[in-house]
Every structure is written in structure tokens, then in C-alpha cells.
């Protein structure tokens, strides 16, 4: 049983502002924390509004930060990033704006590098199973099939065989 007293609105505001100043937060995350801290819904709403007014909470800034981090460090595709942002309650217009900032060439090169790395470690020799495995991998990372198939076709052509270890001479 939790015997802790709920936070006062002012203390909750300070804690939430501290969290937001350390790292970008989604409104839904802060709302959940406020609820866990024992604030009533109307008190939580007042804290959220104040955080927005003081620019601690900003959906656009959060969407851009998450998009940048997930693409650069986790190598996620746009589909997976958009899904996470929708789960966090970010408006579609903000999601589209954040995703549009990903450079198309860097996006394609990231997919190529991921597929090359996966190709090196995939033991599958049968071409159809290998192709299916790589498509599943890229799809799970959140890349669009309209991009996966042409990139994969180019990688698996005979002309690209010299980029892979000798045990993949079939390609």
C-alpha cells in the first residue's frame, strides 16, 4: 500500500518542469506522471497548461527531437517513428513536419547500410528466403516497402556481390 501523500499542485509543477527541462517530454507522459503523483484531473490539466504556457511542453519540439534521435541513433524508419509519435498523442501535422526533416539521401543510405549489415550475418543461402528475411527486418525497423524493394533488388544483384563477404558469392 502506498502511504505517500499526493503532491501539491505547486510541487507537481516544479517536478514536471524539471523533467521537461532535462529532456523533451510528450504531454501524455507528463499527464501520466501527474496522475501517478496523485493529482486530480483538473489540477493536472492546470499544470499541463502552465507547462505549455511556459514552453516546457511543446509537441512540435518533442516530435522533432524524437524523430531525430530515433533515426540517427536507433536507425528507425519513418513508419515506426510515426507510430510511436501517434501513440504519444502528437498531432498528425506535427508528425508530418518532423518526418519531413529527415534527409532523403541519408534515409536511403541508412536503409542500405542496415540491409548490408543484416546480409553479412544472415546464414540463409536460398535467395527467396533471404529476400523475405531482409524485407521483414527492414519492415520491422519501420522502413516503407516502396523503398525496401528497390534497395534490396539493387543489393542482391550480381553487380553488388563484391561488396559482400566471399561466402555470399551467389549474389
Task: Please provide a written account of the structure.
This protein is mostly helical. It has three domains: 9-53; 59-100; 104-168. Helix content is 67%, strand content 0%. The chain is built from nine helices and no strands. It has helices at residues 9-22, 27-36, 41-53, 59-72, 78-87, 92-100, 104-121, 127-140, 145-156. Helix 5 (78-87) packs antiparallel against helix 6. The longest helix is centred in the middle third of the chain and has 18 residues, at 104-121. The chain is elongated. The termini are far apart. The model is unreliable at 158-171 (pLDDT under 50).
Task: Briefly summarize what is shown.
The chain is about 65% helix and about 0% strand. The chain is an all-alpha fold and about 170 residues long.
Largest sheet: none
- What would the principal axes of the Cα set say about the shape? elongated
Number of strands: 0
* The number of domains: 3
Low-pLDDT runs? 158-171
Helix segment count? 9
Strand content: under 5%
Distance between the termini: 62 Å
Helix amount = 55-70%
Which radius of gyration do the C-alpha atoms yield? 22 Å
- Mean pLDDT comes to 89
Secondary structure class reads mainly alpha
Secondary-structure element series = HHHHHHHHH
